[in-house]
Each structure stands twice: as structure tokens, then as C-alpha cells.
Specification:
Residues 1-51 are annotated as: Disordered. Residues 1-41 have a biased composition (Low complexity). By secondary structure, this protein is mostly beta strands. It is built from one helix and eleven strands. The strands form two sheets. A six-stranded mixed β-sheet has the order 2-1-11-5-4-3. A five-stranded antiparallel β-sheet has the order 7-6-10-9-8, with helices on one face. It is globular and about 35 Å long. The two termini are 27 Å apart.
Length: 180
Amino acid sequence: MPPQNAGVATATPAVPTGGTVETTAGAGTATTGTETGGTAADPRRTEPHPDALLGARVSGIARDGDAALLTFAPDDGPALRLALPTAFRLARGERTLLADEDLTAPRDHGPAGPFEDCATRYDARALALNAVLSAVRPAVREVAALPDGGLRLGWGTSFRLEVPGPPASTVTTWRLTRLS
């Protein structure tokens, strides 16, 4: 029986870099051309390239279990997906739209049907936010990889994503993947 993570390239950075960049082929079944945060001692490994998001359109927000997923559509090349398995805050102006605690918080109102019993506050807010994003199609205008391994993005006129640095060097707080 293959291990649970077979076919997925992962790496623990030798230096706290906060995130990784991967190139994924197909539906997550194979990974090629992985670039992860590394050190000068290993020239095959390079620093993450979150600046690939600059100018890309924000095309959607979803989730995968307890991880938030943001998808970006650059003008050329494959789509990019940013996975946030730990703390994050998405705001517009001073108002928080989504945060990591929304992934597990119950909806603000009662479920409308039997299949919505498991829906969270994140699910309801992401649905509304996706409607705004599809109408506006904002482009990423600010990308900052923080010294502590965190990440800060800005798009449109006032959207801001903040991902704090990891609490330990073995934790990945974000992962950028090229979808093909």
C-alpha cells in the first residue's frame, strides 16, 4: 500500500522560509519541478517565488479540509493556487472577510437544508466573496514575502491577505502551487 502522500512532493525548509512553491501536473497525482525554500548549500533548491502572483487575477476561494485555498489566474501560464493550512486573515479595508477560525466556526444562521449541516462560516462567506471576485476580477498589486516567513498580498483597491510567519522552522504556513 503506497504511503498517504505518494506522488506529492513536500520539503521541510532548512531555514524558516514560510512557504513552498510546487508545480503540480494533473489533479494532484504527480508533482514535477518542485521549488522549495532552501539554503545556499543546496543549489537545486531555490527560495519561494510568491512574486509570480503579481498581476494575476484572483479567481476564487475554496477550502480543502482545514486549509483555505485561493486560486489566481495569471495573464500567461498556468493557474496558481495558494494553500493556507494555518493562520491567515483576509480583509477589505478594516473589515475582516475571512480568517482561519471561520474554517471551523458554525454558520451565523441555521442551515437551509439537510446537506448544509456541516457548512461553516467560511463556506458561507467564501460563496459570497466568490460572487464579488467573479464580477470584479481584481489583480494582485502587492506581494511581500516577510522576513519571518509570512506572506502579505494586496489586490483590487482594498483587499489584503495576511499570513503570519510560522511558529517553528518545520511548519509551512503557505504553499504556492502551479496548476496544469
